[in-house]
Structures are given as structure tokens and as C-alpha cells.
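User: Structure with zinc ion, C-alpha cells only please.
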Amino acid sequence: MLEIISFILGPVSTNAYLVADPDTKEAAVIDPAWDGRTILKAAQDRGWRIGHLWYTHAHFDHIGGAAEIADALNPLPLVALHPDDHVLWRAGGGGSLFGFDIDPGPEPTIDFQQGMKLKLGSNEFEVRYTPGHTMGHCVFYFPKENICFCGDLIFRESVGRTDLPGGDWATLENSIRTQIFTLPDETRLLSGHGSETTVGEEKQFNPFVNEG
Ligand SMILES: [Zn+2]
Ligand SMILES: [Zn+2]
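Assistant:
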């Protein structure tokens, strides 16, 4: 079983997700956006151990809380990121463009790749490589319950911006069509910003990429 706690954190209202197997108490944070102590407290209140930080991509507003979480944990959580976003990670997630200087926290040591499986207790996630918003963007699909944590690839009736360094519209559109629209229509999309949606709704109503 998977438990999901969601937070809206930081200067650009980023969604962070604390996910856990309540039986084994193993937890991971998908995009520790900001205010690491808030996420940490939610885990501690439930007796969960945060062992991993999984980044959909390395923008500052998705990793800004990592250092605070890591500072409070021993052993340190393992950080996972696609290698094509390492340059962005080293550059502080591009925060300086927006006037934010963040501590990016522990160095990523696990390289995501297409099709990789992530385990959290009895739960298994599939990594899907979805560049376009950044060069190393990935989403995490949880097939057992048809949930996809999709970062800044696609939002409810919108898509991730492609005007920042490493962004590319044709690549983003291709990622959505091949990695999101191929999932079952009822799949819940938990995005990096805004409210949740489903694959079926976006195929029908997304004004940027749809099947219409
Ligand atoms: Zn982003
Ligand atoms: Zn974002």
C-alpha cells in the first residue's frame, strides 16, 4: 500500500509529495520543494524514515528543501536524478535567474533512466524519461494504483514552460504523447504545480497537447 502526503511549498507554490509504505515505514520525498522541516515533521509524526529524495528535475523550486531534510537525517537520504539534469543541479537549479540562492543539499548518487524501477517497501514505481521542460526531466508512474507523479511536464490544462535553459517544445510534446498519453485514461496525474488531473481529461481538454 502507498500513502501520499502532499504539500504546497515555496515562492512559486510547488507541490512536494511525501510517499511511504506504512507497513515498512519506508518513505521518499518526490520533489522536496521548500521548507524541508515541514516535510520532515510530517514523516516523523507518522514514524516514517525518509531514505530517498527523488527529483523529477533539478529546478530550484523542486529541490529547495533537500538540504534541510538531509541535515536532520542520519544516514543521509539517497538522492536520485537523471544525469542530464546534473549540470542544472550544480547551478543551484537555475534559482539565480529568479533571485533565489539555494543550498542544493546532498549530491545525487542514483542516476534515473527510462524504465528503471524504484522500490518503496512493497510499492514499485517506474521511471519514465520525459525531457522537454528540462533535459533530464523524469516522471514516476505507480501502476498498481494508476498514479503518475509528473513534475513540470504537464499540468491541469497546461504544460511545463520550455523557455528556460534546456527547454524544448517539440521534445516536451513528444514526451507527453509517448510517456503520459500512453497511460490508462483514469491515471491520476500529480503535477509539480496546481491541482491534480487525469490522463483522460488532459487528452480531451489540454489546450497545448491533446488528441482532438
Ligand atoms: Zn521546473
Ligand atoms: Zn516547478
